[in-house]
């Protein structure tokens, strides 16, 4: 299973690198997003979680280590009930807003994570409601913020380059994570067990503390978390 996940992610990375810059630049200029300071993109209502690249994790740790938590949607669970996830995300408050959001303003705006500086632009493949796999370049189109603002060719080129750099780094992190888990499983005689995953998640939802190994710096960091966190 892990080998197949590695192959599929490597295939997506290869496709991403071939995606035409000119097409992405054209989409960016056409969308013309301009922030209106509504703060909605920083809430779970619009974005499930803020995934952090390795460099973002280090930046957040320098500010306050309590800002980060294992990213949700753990990829694996071994027969002992230990979960494995490909990285960290920013914490959220009880109301679902980002822990860094105050009065609709980011409290570390100049040091915000990479994905936050690119939003709402993105470049990855998703399956639509009809099951068709295609590229998705924009999130939350016309749901918040201002659109069809003028963006210069030069600015659009910079945005496009940053988007592709982020998506490439994300996929490379995923591949490295899969390889590390494969190595860890082999060394420890472990394997992914779906029934244990489901059982542990039900216990977690009821308040049980769980163990999550988070991929960071090409290693697996042990974290213990409970629903209250």
Structural notes for this entry:
- The chain has helices at residues 2-18, 21-31, 54-63, 114-118, 153-188, 194-205, and strands spanning 68-70, 76-77, 83-85, 88-90, 101-102, 105-106, 121-127, 133-138, 210-216, 219-225.
- With 229 residues, it is an alpha+beta fold.
- α1 (2-18) runs antiparallel to α5 (153-188) and α2 (21-31) crosses α5 (153-188).
- The model has no long low-confidence stretch (mean pLDDT 93).
- State Rg: 19 Å
Strand fraction band?
15-25%
Major sheet: 4 strands, mixed
Strand order of the largest sheet: 2-3-9-10
- From the helix content, strand content and strand pairing, which structural class follows? alpha+beta
Order of helices and strands: HHHEEEEEEHEEHHEE
Low-confidence stretches: none
Q: Can you summarize this structure?
A:
Pfam families: CxxCxxCC (PF03692). The protein has 229 residues and is of the alpha+beta class. The chain is built from six helices and ten strands, in the order αααββββββαββααββ.
Q: Main attributes?
A:
229 residues; alpha+beta; four-stranded mixed beta sheet; two-stranded antiparallel sheet; 6 helices; YkgJ family cysteine cluster protein
């Amino acid at each position: 299973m892990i080998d197949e996940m590695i192959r599929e992610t490597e295939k997506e990375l290869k496709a991403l690198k071939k995606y035409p810059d000119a097409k992405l630049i054209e989409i960016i200029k056409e969308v013309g997003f301009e922030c209106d300071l509504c703060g909605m993109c920083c809430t779970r209502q619009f974005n499930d979680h803020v995934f952090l690249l390795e460099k973002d994790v280090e930046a957040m740790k320098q500010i306050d280590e309590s800002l980060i938590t294992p990213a949700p949607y753990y990829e694996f669970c071994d027969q002992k009930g230990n979960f494995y996830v490909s990285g960290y995300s920013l914490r959220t408050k009880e109301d679902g807003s980002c822990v860094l959001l105050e009065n609709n303003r980011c409290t570390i705006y100049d040091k915000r994570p990479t994905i936050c500086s690119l939003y709402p632009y993105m470049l990855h493949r998703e399956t639509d409601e009809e099951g068709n796999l295609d590229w998705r370049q924009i999130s939350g189109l016309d749901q918040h913020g201002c659109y069809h603002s003028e963006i210069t060719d030069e600015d659009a080129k910079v945005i496009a380059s940053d988007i592709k750099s982020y998506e490439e780094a994300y996929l490379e992190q995923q591949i490295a994570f899969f390889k590390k888990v494969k190595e860890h499983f082999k060394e420890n005689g472990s394997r992914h067990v779906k029934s244990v995953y489901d059982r542990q998640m039900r216990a977690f939802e009821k308040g049980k503390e769980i163990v999550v190994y988070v991929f960071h710096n090409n290693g697996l960091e042990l974290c213990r978390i409970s629903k209250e966190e």
